[in-house]
């Protein structure tokens, strides 16, 4: 990654600011789904196989869970599944938050760009860090498309008000970083090193 002092930052949530779910969280989701404890790997596969259209806002949460579980959940069960799912994806990395607070103090625009279904997007928007740190948040479900679709990046770039060559894009997925570079942004493939992030942001 070439070094520059960026004028704005576009940041992924899950895997960068957001922590990955623990094994215990996946086990809890398995139990909430009503599946045997030894079926967590199968639940994960079913979850991810159904996830893309849910993240893109193309299906409802009821349709997502019906597809993932193979049976339509009751209204109460759907509420429980939705709550367990949101809890898995809303924890944050304090080290990254500290870096972002310094970025904000330096006056750089921060835009969140996340593949997230409607319930998760609403939950993230309701957090203190989202309101205090980010100028804007762009979520896949509200756009109707997911990264690495270039149109999602264009929405985030527009929110920065900055030319692509002055924007640093941060994501934990190489394919997402590749699209950012194709659009003229500098991209940092985040691997969990908050110090590297701080260096790239000159804070």
TrEMBL record:
<protein>
    <submittedName>
        <fullName>HAD family phosphatase</fullName>
    </submittedName>
</protein>
<dbReference type="InterPro" id="IPR023214">
    <property type="entry name" value="HAD_sf"/>
</dbReference>
<dbReference type="InterPro" id="IPR036412">
    <property type="entry name" value="HAD-like_sf"/>
</dbReference>
<dbReference type="Pfam" id="PF00702">
    <property type="entry name" value="Hydrolase"/>
</dbReference>
<dbReference type="InterPro" id="IPR006439">
    <property type="entry name" value="HAD-SF_hydro_IA"/>
</dbReference>
